[in-house]
Amino acid sequence: MKNSKKTSKKNKSFRFLIKMSLCLIYFVVACILAYCAFHLYTEEIKPIKWENASNTRDYTYIDIDKMSEKFATIDGRKDIHFIIDEEKKTGLWHIYLLAIEEKDYKKYKKVIDYSYGRVKERPKAVRVYGYPVAISTDLKQLTIKNYKNFVSFENEVELTLENFNEYLTNTYLDSTKEQVHNFNWFVVILMVLDLVLFVLIIVTILDKDKLVDEVDRLVELEEKKRNQTKKKKTK
């Protein structure tokens, strides 16, 4: 096989065209893979609405329109509050349990004060993020005991252990947990393929791509055949 530096000017031009075409293909494919990896990663870490959560691994959020003072403390550091999320379209409200750390109380103080009528101006809803955590029987009993202290009389229901999940669900939103990024092998594979493609671009630009060499060899063989055919015809 002839070295590419010894090829004719015509072949050199063709070789350059092949190199640029390959670089363009590699670049386009790399961009597509990078976009797919980024999309998968952002979708995985994107918080979802609390009511759409399907398991305790889902990172969720709730917009708090009303909130009670704490009525229990669990695990020695989690303050438990009632919260109300109001549907903007229907006006229906849903009550849930929220766990916060004491140091975060100021973040919710305006909503809490409004909920108890301490201030007249309604504050903007506060969005809180966290993971669903199963409500223990002890916490359910504390919730039943304190439920009437926060929910107004006209909206009050007789909350029991039997109907608890129907009215308050079987999980509370734990805002004390930091978001966990799960390891995704598919994203890693896409990024590795992306890296390989960018290496191929560099190799091709440096004239070290075996694929280009093979194309160049085939072109030279084809040119030799044509030249030999021409010589035979001229004889």
Q: How would you describe what is shown here?
A:
By secondary structure, the protein is of the alpha+beta class. The chain is 46% helix and 18% strand. The protein has 6 helices and 8 strands. A hairpin with a 6-residue loop joins strand 5 (78-86) and strand 6. The relative contact order is 0.17.
Features:
single chain, 46% helix, disordered N terminus, 6 helices, 235 residues, eight-stranded mixed β-sheet, alpha+beta, 8 strands
Strand % is 15-25%
Average pLDDT rating: 81
Number of strands: 8
Query: Structural class of the helix and strand makeup?
Result: alpha+beta
Helix count from the secondary structure assignment:
6
Q: What is the percent of helical residues? A: 40-55%
Short description:
It contains 6 helices and 8 strands; from the N terminus they run H-E-E-E-E-E-E-H-E-H-H-E-H-H.
Write the layout of secondary structure elements.
Elements: H1 9-45, E1 48-49, E2 60-64, E3 66-67, E4 72-74, E5 78-86, E6 93-101, H2 105-115, E7 126-134, H3 137-146, H4 164-168, E8 171-174, H5 185-205, H6 210-234
Parallel strand pairs: 1-2, 6-8
Antiparallel strand pairs: 2-7, 3-5, 4-5, 5-6, 7-8
